[in-house]
């Protein structure tokens, strides 16, 4: 008798497991017969970062497009988090249709996620010239690989700017309406502020990426990556790149620059202790809200009279669907998101800049710019945007880590920029083989 | 004498079933993965033999990661094993008043999550706007870069974990201290034993079984706790200065997307833990007094 009871108990447990497993698969196949095309949209917009905007945009799209149903899915931890989730989803065959892909994952996504050619998808949907007509060439190029393959559609742009605290400027006898234009001036201003207030005056973001470092190197005429003898190699083992890094390291060394974690640097700025921060325009709304002084913005500083080049941050949209009907629906949705009006909504919610042509000259976004001087300053830099370099190949992301580590070594002062960059270049060339 | 009957085996089966599915099967898959080069998505999975292991052992990174891990263990042992031991002794035998107050104060932080603790300490460590800096400024000193200097970063992160874990370990040790029989101590006092002798000959041996437990969780859990502040505050930096065995497994798998290397690191880490467990069983357990 007892044995029987145990056996039936075991059987029940097994049955439960099996049923739980079936539950998912039956609910998924239910709506396949309807005429409505269902697509899934993955984004990184948390509630404090445009989440509400995404929900409104999707709800509005579903209302105006009765034959398409978009489901939005939030992915925490920004683009790294989304890519991680996407890895898992693709491995289990549950592919979303439209995803926001971070610019620095461009090569990785192109090499690893099998997608149909985006130009062909738009041509099939009856709009072959959409990308060419909507974006300036330097913006469209951001979502291309080096051999010119279009991987996706530019959607969100951010670029590094220099934020400053006018109160500290005044206290140090500097004119807030004449922010530093070059790195030489940044160093002078920082020195003067340090002498007057005793505090370090400059911080450059130290995220686990090399975004602002690329801006430094390229603005000084250097490169991150070169193509040599048919192979990719580190391009930053040059005097230009070393000088660009050394400028920041020297400020840290003489006490006018701050070397800390990102959040510490930002806290110091918003609490009114630190005068200048070089970081993404994406931080604007956050800084304006959490500081009790008037946050001011200026363009990313230059080296002498060399042209400033800033890498694009943010994301582009990738279409991953294999199914023709879904691809068509995805194109419809992407075009909807890229309209001047909806871009303005999205950028208001997130602080990103719009990639579309003529946004600063006409339409709803112009109103936004007229009201906020800081956005205007950032928009002025759009012609200077270059692609965010991502290291190619299976070891690409590890190669980036080597360069992140080199930044710590340089700012720490334990090695000079040219030594540390030379060592990093050797390591990276080894990884890129 | 402990042989199982038929129904005994049957009762054992469900646990064994789940255990093998959720513990041993993944372990096996992990070992298999460590012989491949793969990024989890690509259809290209390449068998590379033991080269993941030989690559790892040949890099300087591996040894610096081990040194960092050992440093983490040392700091954690001081903060979460030695200090709770001393404090619980003081509270049980030296302090006369305010015992409950201390118990509450020490235990409270362990109710917070480590992410909360990490954010809290981010403020405390802030080299320009934090409270430590404010105190140092009074003496005209500059704040050290808590999270940006090698070795110091390990100390700083261990402090965060200590803040959270100290109270729990302290309560465990205190319970053990309180349960040492009063009669034995009284008897020793009558024989004229000093406080020092009582501590060495009675209290330390009598609390050894709890102490060994706290020692083991300090090492094993502590290294896993390290993951959270490292991921939130330093991402392994500066210059991999806070990278440890647990973090590199995550880093290789989910930052670099190199599953094979990550799996190889996981296997090596597991081997080190096996050695630790063996050492604990063979060497440490012999010196422990268990009541039963």
From TrEMBL, chain A:
Subcellular location: Cell envelope
N-terminal signal peptide: 1-20
Keywords: Signal, Transport
Domain of life: Bacteria
GO cellular component: cell envelope
InterPro entries recorded: Bact_solute-bd_prot1, SBP
UniProt similarity note: Belongs to the bacterial solute-binding protein 1 family.
Name assigned to this protein: sn-glycerol-3-phosphate-binding periplasmic protein UgpB
Source organism of the structure: Veillonella ratti
From TrEMBL, chain B:
InterPro entries per the UniProt record, alphabetical: ABC_transporter_permease (IPR051393), MetI-like (IPR000515), MetI-like_sf (IPR035906)
Main location group: membrane
Gene3D superfamilies for this protein: MetI-like (1.10.3720.10)
GO biological process per UniProt: transmembrane transport
A GO term from the CC aspect: plasma membrane
CDD domains: TM_PBP2 (cd06261)
Pfam family, one: BPD_transp_1
Transmembrane segments: 7-25, 62-83, 104-125, 151-175, 210-228, 262-279
Cellular location(s): Cell membrane
Membrane topology reported for the UniProt record: Multi-pass membrane protein
UniProt KW keywords: Cell membrane, Membrane, Transmembrane, Transmembrane helix, Transport
Domain ABC transmembrane type-1 as annotated: residue spans: 66-280
Family to which this protein belongs: Belongs to the binding-protein-dependent transport system permease family.
PANTHER family recorded: ABC TRANSPORTER PERMEASE PROTEIN, INNER MEMBRANE ABC TRANSPORTER PERMEASE PROTEIN YCJO
Protein's name according to its UniProt entry: sn-glycerol-3-phosphate transport system permease protein UgpA
